[in-house]
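Quick illustration, no need to memorize.
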Amino acid sequence: MKLSLLFIGIFIAHCKGEVRIAGGEVTTINQYPFAAALLTNVDGAAFIQRCGGSILSRSAILSVASCFYTGDQVHQARNWRARVGSSYSASGGTIYFIRQINIYSTFEPTSTRYDVAVLRTTFDMVFQPGVVEAAFIAGRSYSFSPNQEVRAIGWGEGSNTEEPTTQLRHVDIWVVDQQLCASRYGNDPNIDENAVCAGWIDVGVKGQCPGDNGSPLLDSNNTVVGIFSWAQGCADLIHPGVNTRVSAFTSWIVATALQP
């Protein structure tokens, strides 16, 4: 079942069901019209793609809080832009200025626990079917099936050795058991009920990699069920990618997107 808050453009699903994409294939924005490339000039004069996000409404974009920190210092909103409506992070579509970065109140920069953020654009984004649309997000009751197949999307290199590409990529991977994931990271206490791990465990080759945090993890209905937070290595066969579990933060995400 899917519910929608049409007056703000956020779609909520209750049905079951630095991130780079390794082992994936190039795709187009038409398949993921809710995808946003987030650009920053924090490290220099030019704006370059650093993170990804998912469009929630005409003025709100979902990402992770860790994108917007250097150490324990949060970035200024003026240092970020969002490119939407383009398959490429460096050209096409429309660029929108960011006026506000809303960080979840208990986010911990050192551990990246509670890693979720909602950006607000200066001007409303212009929606166009199949090009710029709002995403469906997981509702509070969303649950994962064992070994559920999911899809990661994002911009960047396809492996540890490849140069970054500006074209959007996607790859199919699988949800990893929570206890197994935590054990692969030395029983890290930060991998808890607010996280969901995904990858190709004990095989590698395909998965999420550091370099493009904030990009969505999708189920078979293109519902945003996770937000890539961090990983060790790139599509590592031992360590899966760690994503923020959207269903744990649905109420906050919606409330924040509703703010004027």
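The two ends are 28 Å apart (CA to CA).
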